[in-house]
Amino acid sequence: MRSPTSLLASAFILILSTLPATQGWTAPATARDGNNIELGDVTFRLDGIEAPAFDQTCIDEHADAWACGAAARDQLTKLIGGKPVRCDDLGADPSFKRRRLGVCTVEGASTSLNQQMVQDGLALADARGKFKADETAAHDAKRGLWKGCFITPTDFRRWKQDAALQGGACRADRDREIRALLFPDDPAMPDGCNIKGKYAVRARVTGNTGIYHLQTCRSYPGLDQDRWFCSEDDALAAGFRKAYNCRRGLPDK
Q1: CB-side exposure of 199: number of CA atoms within 13 Å?
Q2: How far is it, in rounded angstroms, from Cα 145 to Cα 45?
Q3: Can you spell out the DSSP letters for 59-81?
Q4: How far apart are CA 67 and CA 69, in angstroms?
Q5: Strands 210-213, 195-199: parallel, antiparallel or unpaired by DSSP?
Q6: pTM of the full structure
Q7: Which backbone phi and psi does 149 adopt, to 5 degrees?
Q8: CA-based Rg of the chain, rounded to a whole angstrom?
Q9: pLDDT grade for 24, boundaries at 50, 70 and 90
Q10: 136-161 pLDDT per residue, tens
Q11: CB 185: neighbour CB atoms within 10 A?
């Protein structure tokens, strides 16, 4: 049976889905990662940008592994600064209907969080290129991601291990070593994010790219994961489905 809180959140999302685009909402905000913020029970994906996935690793200017996904979340939290945020609601996120697309701005600020993240070099402009000039400026100044070496967030989410390397610290003579850091065999678990994700061809049968495993799944212990997720919604949004051997009532491992 669903909890009253869950039912209320579902009802709120249903109401949102019937409202016209550009309806605005102002509330205290929490950064889920560099690309998504929560206003109350509603998650808005910042429109027009691609920030690193929370579990994504990049290379810094010293050629060391850097938790760039966590850094992007921390920067978004810093930009919010505990102030109310207004999100102009652009409608349901086409890639995950439980989220909304939004242009979000901190109360009193003249620049959206969307644009600021690209200006700071901790997000890229998406394929539509709305913030391309900001991305170019961050690239030229070697800010954020651009000071090191990385693959685009889109390529990381597709687990494209032969993707083009980006940034000012990429070295052709260290290509293999760099890719081993960007796609580690045993990625470290980010704080509070214990859901394991594994890319799997068999997941394509259900239209997914991978399978996620909770601590209550029989497959969890000893699983060699590719990704870590902080919530089931995060895993679902990334195109992963739950492992079939997950059962209610099993003890946590």
Answers
A1: 10
A2: 20
A3: E-TTS-EE-HHHHHHHHHHHHHT
A4: 6
A5: antiparallel
A6: 0.86
A7: -145, 135
A8: 19
A9: confident
A10: 999 999 999 999 999 999 999 999 99
A11: 7
Tokens (6 digits) for 138: 């961050």
> Is the model's pLDDT at 192 over the cut of 50?
yes
Q: Work out the number of other CB atoms within 10 angstroms of the CB of residue 86.
A: 18
Q: Which long-range contacts (CB under 8 A, 24 or more apart) does 126-133 make?
A: 126/48, 126/49, 126/50, 128/48, 130/48, 131/48, 131/49
Domains of the chain: 4-182 (2.40.50.90), 185-253 (no CATH)
- Whether residue 76 contacts residue 34, with contact meaning beta carbons closer than 8 Å, is answered with yes
By C-alpha distance, which of 120, 134, 145 is closest to 56?
145
Structure confidence by residue, pLDDT tens digits, 207-224: 999 999 999 999 999 999
The average confidence (pLDDT) of the chain is: 90
